[in-house]
Amino acid sequence: MKKLSLVLLLVMAGAVAVMAQRTITGTVTDAEGETLIGASILAKGTSSGTVTDIDGTYSLRVPEGVNTLIFSYTGFATQEVELGPSDVLDVTMQESAEQLSEVVVTAIGLEANRARLGYSVQNLESDDIINSQETNIVNGLNSKVAGVTVTSSSGSPGASANIRIRGATSVTGNNQPLFVVDGVPIDNSEFGNGVDGVDQSNRAIDINPNDIENMTILKGPAATSLYGVRAANGVVVITTKSGRAGKPRVSFSSSYRVDEVNKMPELQSSFAQGQPIGGVPTWRGPDTGEGFSWGPAISDLEFDGSDYPYDQNGRLVPVGQGNGMPAQAYDQNDFFVRGNTYDVNLSVQGGNGIINYFVSAGRLSSNGIVPNATFERNSVKVKLDANLTDKLTISGSANYVNSGGFRIQRGSNLRGVMLGLLRNTPTFDMGNGLVGQEAADNRATYLLPDGRQRSYRAGIYDNPYWTINKNPFQDNVNRLIGYGSLRYELLDWLTVQYKLGLDQYSDRRNSAIDLIPGRIAGSVTQEIITSSDLNSDFLFLVDKDLSDSWNLGAILGHNYFSTDVVSQSAVGNTLAAPDFYHISNATDIQAFEGISRRKLMGVFGDVSLAYNNYLFINGTYRNDWTSTLPEGNNDFQSWSASLGFAFTEALGMQNNPILPYGKLRVSYGAVGNDAPIYATQNYFNAAAATGDGFISGITFPAFGVNAFERDIQLGNNILTPETTTTLEIGGEFKFLRGRLGLDVTYYNSESVDQIIPVQLSATTGFTNAILNAGRITNEGVEIVLTATPVRGQDFSWDIVGNFTHYENTVEELIEDVDNIFLAGFTSTSSEAVVGMPFGAIYGDGFRYDDDGNLLIGADGWPLVDPSKRALGDPNPDFLLGIRNTFSYKGVSLSALLDIRQGGDVWCGTCGIIDYFGTSQVSADERGDVVVFDGLLPDGTPNDIAVPLADPTSGLGSYYRVRYGFGGISEMSIYDASWVRLRELTLSYTIPKSVFKGKVENMSIALTGRNLWLNTDYPGIDPETNLTGASNGIGLDYFNMPNTRSYAATLRANF
Amino acid sequence: MRNILFMLLALLMVAFSTSSCEDLTEVNEDPTRLSDADLSLMAPIVQAGHYRNEGSNPTRVAGIVMQQLTGFDAQQLAYAANVIGEDAMDNYWRTGLYAGTMKDAIVMIDKAVEDGNTFYEGLGKLFLAAAMGDATSYFGDIPYSEAFQGTEFLKPSYDAQESIYAEVQSLLDEAIVAFNADKGGHVGGDLVFGGDAALWVKTANALKARYLMQTQKRQDRSAEVLTLIDAAMASSAEQATFVFGTAETENWTLAKFGRERTNTLTFNEGFAQRLEDNADPRLTKYAIFDGTNWLYWELGNPDLVWGRDDAAIPLVSYAELMFLKAEALLRTGAADADVNEALTAAITASMELVELDLMSAEVMDYIAANGQVSGSFDEKLEQIINEAYVAYYGHNFHQAWANQRRTGYPVLTPVPGGEADGLNPGGGIVQRYLYPVSETQTNRENVDAARARQGGGLLNATLWAFE
After folding, report:
1. Which of the following CATH numbers is that of domain B40-248+310-412: 1.25.40.390, 1.20.59.10, 1.10.3720.10, 3.40.30.10?
2. Lowest-pLDDT range, A14-18, A738-742, B199-203?
3. Which of A95, A126, A141 marks a domain boundary?
4. CA distance A513 to B414
5. Which stretches of chain B score pLDDT less than 70?
6. Rounded to a whole number, what is the distance in Å from the CA of A157 to chain B's nearest CA?
7. CA distances, A51 to each of A28, A160, A994, B380 (Å)
8. For A108-122, what is each residue's pLDDT tens digit?
9. CB distance from A277 to chain B under 8 Å?
């Protein structure tokens, strides 16, 4: 015990012992004499090592007693070279069949040799993530991994990004993968990304990308089943940087990024606010409260110089009736500013081989493209590994993160910035003579002298400058993620390991809606969400050679996981004074608390057999007990079997120049998806009188009493988990001495016993019940292609391509139910529709006959189908990410091209701005007379010409208005295919010689993000989704725009 | 050292495995909710739910149909053009009515019967009857005999409107019996009468009178109505009034609509004109002209009685009772003087309801000018119903609409283009609401059968009671 304390003391002191050393230098080249950059050199039996620099040279201080160096490089055979008397050691590496002996991190955070796996995994290195210049690691994965779809909510600072691996497996359950950092599952939830409110973060944003060593994406059940129920949607395994033995190495990086809006809907600047009155387009000013921009041509109007609170130049009148000052159109996009992000990171790592440490600190600070929008992230991380004896290792890590910012109202929200901005009529100057931040900082922009709001519709929609000042939303997250672990080698083939992980955070949110005299009473909301996840893993690990040919690997483990989320909020209504956003300003206050908790226990086993290094058999089994299922029925099983066969090894083809390596894989497995919490019994809730559709309810306590009522959800005590089974077949091939690599995977999965909140007829006394029913299938192909067309002495060209294609189909729901709402609006939504791709866009469409002819009414206008139907498929036909990297000496140019083919998005924004007459389309077609292509009621082709906007027939007759608010869904569904230059990075590594040994290396990188985007989608950048991590996708309704960025990064290692 | 380590490991294992095993199921019990509730905790939501419905979407749309309100923006504009689709009443049907007030009333009745408390049994039945009476006046045939039985009947059939009205009467009869039985008594939660069973009996009789008169076209039971009125409230002071609160969570529905859906619904200009033309002093209590539009609501304006946060809403007002009396007297051939007396009492009670000074010249002039019937039977009926139409504004839209469909008064001009894209063939005054979309989705066979029985169930289909 004394010994242990002493060691612990040493750990805390971070003491680094100094040993006698000699320094070996040399050059590492390949068989053709070309130098190898980044080859690893390790002093055998120690953890001290280094890598070759850009000249292929290395220098390593070798502790006394070490007489062998180990040289390794991806794609080459690892060599052990004995040290001679010389301190110079040049090594020539041989390309090898062992070239895929890349180490990947698999289930439960264990390392495995990629060559031995019978399933597909994909790895990303630190640079792949950092160079993307994304604040959110999830965005950093975009276009880089086959089978992964990333959708960001918007370009707002701190906005969430959502990830799906191989489409959706659950109709209404969670479809996001599990995030595991250093073996500890972390929380990636997001609270509050609905159709309105602000863009919230997904909590993976708290991970500082600079702390990441690498990431592995586990896709199918064979890869994930050891995680059991939590891994039904795949796993993102993140390994953070650790200390390596050696003197303290300091890394510093600093980057500055500038953001600007990358795409906005096209707005018109020719027609004024107003609508036809008595058959004539007439100016109707802000004071009318009318929203339309179907008024007269701006060129036909002038100011009258009258005293008018909404415009310093007065009201608008026809030319000749005013003061001669011509009316003008204002550019709404002047609202946006240039955003910027400053990111600084510093880390120190090192160790004496017994105790190794890694300490880092990072600060990221962003200002958005919307004035006042911010996001900040400050993080500190400490990671220690101590080899207490040659058999006992203890490790620990603690990562503290503080994040949050000022967030902007968006979406279907009368306070939303984009709603107010895009509906704003061209003749209303939102900035009142100013633009951008200057306008935002001047109260006269958005405030009338009488305290009411200055906006184009007299306060019905908030002026964007009003909302960013008067409707604040701030969040502040304090988070601690850590673990402690212990590893002991009981026998040379048996290791026991224990790891306890903790992820705890509090998320404090303060928001307000300021009062407007006579209109808005105002409110203040204070919310605190605290989340605590605990994970315990106890493992026995076996690695034993059974004979010369057979090797056995096995894992036996126990897991305990508990999550506890408490949300407490106070909502204060009816504010007393303006500009005072504290709860004490409220006239009445309500308090709420929600508690959600879940526990899970599992035992699991994994057996791997390897025969002669070419045949690999693996079986896994896990039994979980969960708190969310009814007692006695609360356990379920996940399992998998996989086979890997490296035929080139078996046939002795390793040295075949055309196909030196080939492996075939097949796996089959099943994993479960959990039931929602508290679904097994009936409850009495705090009572609320609701049922209006337009307004909030009466909530108790009220009127001086309290009340409870039976919940409208019918409890189900026979729930079972959802189960997904997957067959995966694939192969990995290396051609032409490894210059060309191909990894192809086909999978076919089926998810059954979907846990579906089924809508009941309310006349039963319940509105819904949670039942097991339904089936989703998913079939897909993933291809990863790597090529090195040129690998020369100084110049090399590398290509990596990732191709993703899947078909995710809703096969069955429940009897009599054809569609289930996932997200969106009653008019247009993303739904699960039987026989359709998952998340289909569902809404009102025009009427067609069986031959697909549009049906036209006797008046010449297309008819609307009285029943809603699936109108679009938001899933892409395929995704393709292609990265080309050119390196010449220390200069590297890397371009990531992202192609998305197909996939529809509902541009609800477009439908609305067409309706209000602010879109360019609505201006262009004002004079048009068209004959819709279709059939008249008598079956003859339509020949009736209709004017699209005829003032004499009234506004209600206009094409963009006649089908109601925003038109019908079908009018606004667009193909969102795109080609974009997602990343372009030019970096230069300054030769070491420049620094005369004071700096190990230094590099400068210039990065562009979304520099180029080509799409026919008429709204903002179609890489967006209104409802965050919900299962509904393809919805754009006044979403915040995305950004284009330019960044410069300096990195130095000392 | 090895031993110590193993001990530590074993301890950790024990800590995280054994303890958790037992409480797995317990973890799934939501600590924020109850598994059962007392009667005193049930009554407030039954009452608040029903009174809130008196201003929710079906009544506001009735106000639009009756041309007392009109749409200014968004969905309200569509409603004003008779585009009142299957989704319009879905929220009301689901969480306002069936899985709302009616469910809450049924749960309370069951609990009261179990506990042997007749007061809450009576209260539950009274509100269940009132909710059903309103619902059938909107939809005609509705589920009842197979409803509220959970998994027993997942797809309840629709009962004919005739039997629903009969059920309303018998529920009210049972409520009266229960109130009179006086077992268990009030243990809290009656926000209206604080447990005064006698006043509830009077209200039950008033409701019986209302719903008997609603089916008058089918069977005239005016004599019975008069008897019931005698057993009902004797003054406005005895009417069952629910007082909403100024806290945002307690606001009267129309005020809440004003707050949360500002500038989408306004006071009907034609209705304002009608009141102006008659020098009706109630206009100042109903609406305010802002220079462009007539507004029924303004934040914090205490003059607008039916737009107030803390409006006092009668379940069935003394004014309504007197209008029913005037009509019943007319129908039973009573002398004009008796009819006039009831009509004058009705108008006076209406003025009182909106807090006008009964002694003021405007009020006295109005009553003097409008409190007398004259002319043919139809003309007299028209006068009574038209007066009721004005009096019911703001809190009783559904009875104004029921009267119109039953008697044809007031005579309204249908809105132009009111065919509403096929929802309202003929384009006349809307006669009913469509069955909500969720019924089509979850109970299709039964709702289709109900539609077929009722002439297709579109907005123009006359309900059984009004045929």
Report:
1. 1.25.40.390
2. A14-18
3. A95
4. 41
5. 1-22
6. 29
7. 10, 37, 19, 104
8. 778 888 888 888 888
9. no
